[in-house]
Amino acid sequence: MQRNIGQLTWTEVEALDLAKDGALVLPIGSIEQHGPHLSTDCDLVFADRFLDLALERLDQHTKVWRLPILPISKSNEHVGFAGTWYLSAETLMATLRDIARCAVNNGFRRLVLWNCHGGNRALLEVAARDLRIETGLMTFQVFASGVMPDPLDPLDAREPVYGIHAGEWETSVMLALAPDRVRLDRRNCEFPKFSSETLALELTSATVGWTSRDFQISGTWGDAAAATTERGQQRLTPLIDRLAAILTEIAGFEMGA
Ligand SMILES: [Zn+2]
């Protein structure tokens, strides 16, 4: 089954039976600095390949299709580092609105915003609700770290809090997925000089609006030097299985009322 909708003809798209089940996935990539050792398209590669691996695992009767990846998104937290390209929040929201309208025009009832870049999360949550109201689509946002919490014990106690970017997790998974994107001899370890009893960088009730340049010299958050291919593979398999299960459920999901 061809699941990349861009590789179907218009008559094949028109013939898709989407009256009940069926979902369209928009993978959202980003191009931004990922330390001195990972290519800037790290999160794009994750979003693109994780999705294709999950789609390969779906039952052939499960109606899920994907769009080509949206390559640039909201990664302005890395502004000031070379290699960073981003859309403003306004531009990204407008782009998502236009794509959602096209999904409706093509008969889809469900749109999945699939994303591997933390800087997009807040905006995609807003987008998912606004697009639900504005278009009537059932909308979903799926984020890689939320799909599968890290099954491995951290090698450094700081990693779960600060190893959020180009650190041990991302570098290990990239070694397993696309080793050509990793400069082995440039892997480094850097944790932010951030100390507060009360405030955090993200995911708690009181946070700081930060950029990488506020805290980082190399762009690496975490211990990339500790990354291994084996640790990447141990994370990859459960993540892909879980993503396939989530997409299967979404394909037949209905609102309860
Ligand atoms: Zn990343």
Features:
4-stranded parallel β-sheet, alpha/beta, globular, 10% strand, binds zinc ion, 257 residues, Rossmann fold, two-stranded antiparallel ribbon
Describe the structure.
- Keywords: Hydrolase, Metal-binding, Zinc.
- This is Creatininase.
- Belongs to the creatininase superfamily.
- With 257 residues, the chain is α/β, with parallel strands linked by helices.
- It has one domain (5-252): Rossmann fold (3-Layer(aba) Sandwich).
- Helices cover 39% and strands 10% of the residues.
- It contains nine helices and six strands, in the order H-E-H-E-H-E-H-E-H-H-H-E-H-E-H.
- The protein has helices at residues 10-14, 42-57, 89-105, 121-135, 144-147, 159-162, 168-177, 212-215, 229-252, and strands at 23-28, 64-66, 110-115, 138-143, 189-190, 222-223.
- The chain has a four-stranded parallel sheet with strand order 2-1-3-4, sandwiched between helices. Strands 5-6 form a two-stranded antiparallel sheet.
- Strand 1, helix 2 and strand 2 (64-66) form a beta-alpha-beta unit.
- The longest helix is centred in the last third of the chain and has 24 residues, at 229-252.
- It is globular, with a radius of gyration of 19 Å.
- The structure holds zinc ion.
